[in-house]
Design a protein that fits this description.
Helices cover 41% and strands 20% of the residues. It is α+β, with helices and mostly antiparallel strands. It has 2 domains: 6-50, no CATH class; 61-148, no CATH class.
């Protein structure tokens, strides 16, 4: 018996594949099609879930950063892939489980100097709200512009 040449091997392999495909029943073909229909969307979903940039488009993010050095909290939030919002907040008062806070909202992340300056300004504002006749009105950071403008008595509600 002679050994098959490479051309005969290829025809034999292709012929074997053709013979295998032609021997499949309709039920086996439908099962294979169903598996493919399930596998493709599953693979796409897996790719989306494991892609960080795609995942941020569909999820929200919230983070609180507290410090032992400052009495303020930095909060970072984004809603379903939107831009991040930043706030520096400090407590004003509490009643039961309710907490009242004052905050500065920003569309950029504050650096350490801004965080410290804004926190100090918030603390002065809290002191002024608690004791308006004792503590002088606060000003904006690095400015002489007053942060609190008293309304004339006629404009108050």
């Amino acid at each position: 018996m002679t050994e098959p040449t490479s051309a005969e091997e290829r025809v034999g392999q292709v012929g074997g594949i053709v013979k295998l495909v032609s021997s499949l029943t309709l039920t086996q073909v439908l099962v294979i099609a169903l598996l493919v229909m399930i596998a493709i969307p599953t693979y796409i979903a897996w790719r989306v879930i494991n892609d960080a940039s795609m995942l941020t488009k569909f999820t929200s993010h919230y983070e609180e950063i507290s410090s032992d050095k400052l009495p303020c909290t930095l909060r970072i939030a984004s809603l379903r892939g939107g831009g991040e919002s930043f706030s520096i907040s400090t407590g004003l008062s509490a009643q039961g489980s309710d907490r009242w806070t004052l905050a500065v909202l920003m569309n950029r992340r504050p650096n350490e100097t801004e965080l410290q300056t804004y926190c100090e300004t918030l603390q002065i504002l809290v002191d002024h709200i608690r004791r308006p006749t004792v503590v002088p009105p606060p000003t904006f950071p690095n400015s002489d512009v007053p942060l609190v403008w008293p309304y004339p008595p006629a404009e108050q509600l």
